[in-house]
Amino acid sequence: MDLIADILLAAGALGAGFYCFVLSRRLTRFTDLENGVGGAVAVLSAQVDDLTRTLAEAQKTAGESSESLADLTMRAEETAKRLELHLASMHGLPKDEATRPKPEETVRPRTEGDTVFMRHAGRGAA
Questions:
Q1: Which of 27, 32, 59, 102 has its Cα between 20 and 30 A from that of 77?
Q2: Rounded distance between C-alpha atoms, residue 34 and residue 49, angstroms
Q3: How far is CA 93 from the centre of its chain?
Q4: Does residue 30 fall inside a structural domain?
Q5: What is d(CA 47, CA 120) in angstroms, rounded to the nearest whole number?
Q6: Residue-range definition of the domain harbouring residue 61
Q7: Is the pLDDT of residue 75 over 90?
Q8: What is the rounded end-to-end Cα distance, in angstroms, of the chain?
């Protein structure tokens, strides 16, 4: 009886040893950096680093764009105020064609001693 118990005990120990050997091989392949989960973790870690860098650059660009947009908005508001002032100043002008001064009345005739420059229409003759 002792002999049978010893044989069964040795067989159990050999079976447990074989199971540990197979498990060790599987774990080695599982954590392999090229094919296993270790490789997948390494690839995902590299992708996270790339995405972190890309996100930081996108945030920087968005901040610069926001500042630029704020500046442009401020300039547009200032221009709109100036346009409103111009429009308000035009309300005092006569609406009738007969009361408006004719362009030839506002232009001084050119004389021989005048220097010829390009002038704005309505301000002088070229």
A1: 59
A2: 19
A3: 48
A4: no
A5: 62
A6: 38-89
A7: yes
A8: 131
